Amino acid sequence: MKFGYFDDVNKEYVITTPTTPYPWINYLGSQEFFSLISNTAGGYSFYKDAKLRRITRFRYNNVPLDLGGGRYYYLYDEGDFWSPGWAPAKKELQSYECRHGMGYTTIKGKRNDVSTEVTFFVPLNFNGEVHKVVVKNESDKAKTLKLFSFLEWCLWNADDDDRNFQRNFSTGEVEIKGSVIYHKTEYKERRNHYAFFSVNAPIAGFDSDRESFIGTYGGFDAPKAVVAGQSNNSVADGWSPCASHCLEMELQPGETKEYVFILGYVENPVEDKWESKGVINKTKAEAMIAQFATTADADKALAELKADWDRLLSKYILESGEEKLNRQVNIWNQYQCMVTFNLSRSASYFESGVGRGMGFRDSNQDILGFVHQIPDRARERIIDIASTQLQDGGAYHQYQPLTKRGNDAIGGNFNDDPLWLILAVVAYVKETGDYSILDVMTPFDNDMSVATPLKDHLKRSFDHVINNLGPHGLPLIGRADWNDCLNLNCFSTEPGESFQTTTSKDGRVAESVMIAGMFTYIGGLYARLMEKVGDMDEAKRADSEVDKMREVIMKDGWDGKWFIRAYDDFGKKVGSEECEEGKIFIESQGFCVMGGCGIEDGKAIEALDSVEERLGTKYGLVLNNPAFTRYVVEYGEISTYPAGYKENAGIFCHNNAWIMCAEACVGRGDKAYDYYTRIAPAFLEDISEIHRLEPYVYPQMAAGKDARRFGEAKNSWLTGTASWNFVAISQFILGIQPDFDGLKIDPAIPKAWDGYKVTREFRGDIFEVEVKNPNHVSKGVSSLVVDGKEVAGNVIPMFNDGKRHTVVATMG
């Protein structure tokens, strides 16, 4: 069942009913100001940091669903009232439509022959949202209408706002000037910032006190002021400040009124933060408001935003003849990669933005999916991430985007983290050819007194693995590897006490075959990077360590038909035929094969065959099998989930991509593409009633075959699935691979394909690549012709002339 449709021409998903199976959201903003908005205008906004600079309030896991807050509009028509997005008023509409586009959302609803269209977006280089509201009288008689706006201020720190009522109910402050409502809570204290909500028209009234607007026991569905058709002109004094305008309008049949509302954020210099009588410095806000004095200003800014997204998405364009594949690759996957770059895993409808900042491993992996679009910002992000690394090569697992400081509460000891930094840097260098990043003086734990070149950070990342090996010579898992719920270093000091996790510093010896597989893959890339910068001794040393690890994996990490997952703290195998449950895990199969383990003796193929046999479902590959049906203290959190959910045999879409890459490595393009289509959102649109989440972006996971709700997705938008699936399809399956010396063409496609075309910007040049498959093979390039001249091998040489170049690669 569908709840809308793709409009590929406009790069939009069009939702045709407000009652989607779950709120389907979009993200606004791509620089410093961000917003989440659902198809009924729910959501919230923040500046840089969803925890420390929350602008509007939102209540998670709310009942009714998606009525925890938003930016709402109400139309009042002679006693009747409604909302253009259906919610929160929930009055029946004559028509409804929501268009989620690239950085903007338009919601349109009609009732009583009055149509209202609201377009929400964050303009480029602007710290705020612009709402263009269009009200049209489509009836045959004159209408006297009132338009109410509403949003609720968060008291800046979302965590404190949610809990510290005894203080916060006494701190709310606002200031009203004309048609602008300023939120200045705590401005005079220390923060030198404020927010505002404005409209470019005279207002008939306003409210800035939530209780006055809604009523003591009222709700968003029927606010007291809207029901009465009259604002209260309330000025918040403590309690819960909000912002609501009331505009009156007379509309003749066919007449339209247009307005521009702005939700903005301002930071002033410290010396300006507090003036006489508590009046804030409004200069910056007034300048922001002046930018959008008319709807023509808003239209121009929206056109500029769309053009910028067209530019970003033009970096990689596929022509495959398959509509669903084209839209997934050309539009929605790349768009999602940019959103995850901005937010990591911090703020969604499944992450509150309070408990998590930017993830070390998360943000490094996200770079793989967007580096081709904004390499300069990728470079900045790499330095930010590396600056949180610790001197021993370990890393803070998370850091706050506003302060860029490591999160002490979570700490480090996730022993996979260091390797992801190497992978991100390699991806950046391959994309740009910019080796100078390796010379950037980069601090440890943000302490410049102990800064070293980034190249040294990579060496310490590499050495962190070989300096932390267990009894079998495999890497110690630490607190966890990529699978945070596989907690193998578990112990209890007294009967009945809760179990906790420790690291090797406490004598724990659980080992990870996944990290070992990562090491063979990423360590090999590190060795090639060292070769390119002329450090041959380091390259030789790295190759030697990778070879040793590969031998250890084949000796103690092979279980007969697949790679085991780990050894627990007691030296017992995890992910083995010997295990009662959890006999096979997906992660080590992907990375060990990508790292070249078992390629020559056929064991890689055997492992991948076991993946399909044991883990395969019609909705994707489950993480492990059989699912755990009881709590296993030696394994920790993974066994606490019901069978089929999350890490306990759920379809964790992130690691499905590693199997696609592995299948491509062994030349099985049919299988790689088959796995791709099982989880790509555009291919699942027809089962939206089962999948439930947005059919235009990847979720983190879907319920596995052991679950009662098999196929139901959770945790959409912010997931490493986005970057890894873009890597899988663009580099491993379609085979257009950035490499140190140029653009490499190495497809692994279904045999039935005749070919395809990819236009790819690379290091300032544009390559129009046509791949032909006359012999219907999956792997192998028999000839490469560039600008009419045959080139030996399968790497396009670099021109660096800023021109377009034609490439024909023939498979065979």
UniProtKB/TrEMBL annotation:
Residues 11-293 form the Glycosyl hydrolase 94 supersandwich domain. Residues 309-735 form the Glycosyl hydrolase 94 catalytic domain. It comes from the Bacteria. Keywords: Glycosyltransferase, Transferase. The keyword Protein biosynthesis does not apply. GO terms for biological process: carbohydrate metabolic process. InterPro entries: 6-hairpin_glycosidase_sf, 6hp_glycosidase-like_sf, Gal_mutarotase_sf_dom, GH65_N, GH94_catalytic, GH94_Enzymes, GH94N_CBP, Glyco_hydro_65_C. This is Cellobiose phosphorylase. GO terms for molecular function: carbohydrate binding; glycosyltransferase activity. The lineage of its organism: Bacteria, Bacillati, Bacillota, Clostridia, Lachnospirales. Residues 741-777 form the Glycoside hydrolase family 65 C-terminal domain. Pfam families: GH94_b-supersand, Glyco_hydro_65C, Glyco_hydro_94. It comes from [Clostridium] polysaccharolyticum.
